[in-house]
Amino acid sequence: MRRIYTNHLLCSGCRACSVACSVVHFGVADDARGAIQILRDPIAGFEYQALCRICEDPECVAACMAVALSIDRETGRVLFDRDRCIGCAMCVMVCPHHAIVPDRRAGKAIICDQCDGREVPACVTACSTGAIEFIEVEEEAGVKR
Amino acid sequence: MPQSPITHYAIVGAGTAGVTAAEAIREVDPSGEILLINGEQFPPYCRPLIVEVLKGERTFDQIHLRDADWYKEKKISLLNGDPATKLNTTEQTLELASGNTVRWDKLLVTPGSKPAFPRIDGLEDVPVFTLYRQEDVERLKPRCKPGAKAVLVGIGLIGLQAMSALREMGVDVVAVELQKKVLPLILDAKAAKYARQRIEESGVEVQLMTSIKKTWAANGLKHPYKALTSGGEEIMFDFLVVSTGMKPDFSLLEGTGIQTKRGIKVSGDMQTSVPNVYAAGDVTEYHDWTEGRSDVHGHWVNAYRQGRVAGLSMAGAKPVPYDPVYLNSLNIFGLPVITMGSSRVDRPKNAQVHVSDVPSRFAYTRMVLRDGKLVGATFVNDVNRAGVFQYLMREKVDIGDVVKSLFNREFLGMEFLYNHHEKAIRGDVEWPVSMDLIERYEKDQSHTRWGAKEKEQGNKK
User: Fold this and answer.
1) Is the dihedral of CA B60, B64, B68, B69 positive or negative?
2) Is the pLDDT of residue A27 over 50?
3) How many CA atoms lie within 13 A of A63 on its CB side?
4) Which ipTM was obtained for this model?
5) pTM of this prediction?
6) CATH no. for residue A68?
7) Which of the four pLDDT bands, split at 50, 70 and 90, describes residue A136?
8) A46 and A59 co-located in one domain
9) Residue numbers of A between 83 and 112 with CB closer than 8 Å to B
10) Range of the domain at A81
């Protein structure tokens, strides 16, 4: 399976990835509705890329009381059933990666689906500095934390 | 591996803890027989979502915990509408309401809790509802007509859910709460003030430090019943909703020797004091390190995690014990609130409190630190970062030095978080150093703006 990795040293904090994500998923250019979020530390010049890091034992799945989130046992990815989501923000509360954003307008959660159906996720194509990479990961390679 | 005899697992109670446990058992033990005893007629469902059904936004068919096929696929025998009535731990049997007796090798009890009723004179003469089970919704729903009036006793988690549903259906609500603040087990005074403001804006009449003394039928009025508050006020109403908290349901445990105090005492792998009997979910009592005492907190994450740990250890695996933290995510008439740990204490002992408050935006964040470690946090309206702090709390990370910067909107101290997750973020990618990128930015100087050429180049990369 392939995963999205990011490098804060290359990230300029332009949020093109968040915009691309919201365009692809919701048809709006709204960085607040992107499943990837850039959090800036202006003093240290540090950019933190928050998106789903595909935890081995995802907290969000445990917390979802609408059972909208589940684990794809083959790829380890978190699957999100948007119709079941009630917007309770339980997943937002437990995600240690700041990866799930509440969509206040729609009352749903926003979580990375690696742009299902696209060959390369929108954020990766939108990144002009190469700070986001989509690469093949072997399960045995010890990438799992 | 030598052929081992088939283990018979029995799970009493099919809430999230029971279903998760069954799933976990099946992961480890592919051959054991799993019997999931559901006391309700209705197949297992997401209990917190019944309020969505009450509002009419979902139907019961849409809130099942699992599809019917799932139980078949996992070979889990699901027994609906046949509650367990008697437990015998010496002979390892379980009697059911239908008269059948079930033998078990490993038993998990997840009876959950039942609503606690306050002492009110004449409560039996008026229509009283709770909001806990599927049948409660079916009973309550026909009463919820626009213009009806409800008295809500207790403004806690369920009270909040009930009032938002009732308001949505046009029911007038008078809510009374015995404590000095709304949601007293969850919010501190300031957050409760915001919550109360929001509740009152929605049209609910809130009376704090008030209880209902007496209720009676007073025929011939606009609303057929009357209630007397401790303040001496008489309130007319159509029905009464009780949400004064829950208490663990011990009815099955009588005479079994399973130790209980506030809840069932369990070890790290969810075993009770009786061998081969496990417990999980809202019924268990655990040590809440954020408050430094043992308590029973019913909440979803805890039930799921405990159910999983119990299931794995029943099947013989060695799961990592779950260290629970009390977490709550609420929506107070559109105002998102997340609390964790010891968030309700107004003046915590031996702890520093950090607060950021922007009243005009309803944005309020409060953090309680003990020895540099986060033990309680409240997020009102600005909830996006809550997960990060939940992580810092659970991992008992010392954030004493950086807590001030963590408050910042722009989130100074992201580097701190990054260091905790570096592996997951960067992966094993061989990242280019920034210098390699120069080529990409070296453009023909005659071009004043991005043109088709660059776009094409960009797409190739």
Assistant:
1) positive
2) yes
3) 25
4) 0.90
5) 0.88
6) 3.30.70.20
7) confident
8) no
9) 84, 86-102, 104
10) 55-97
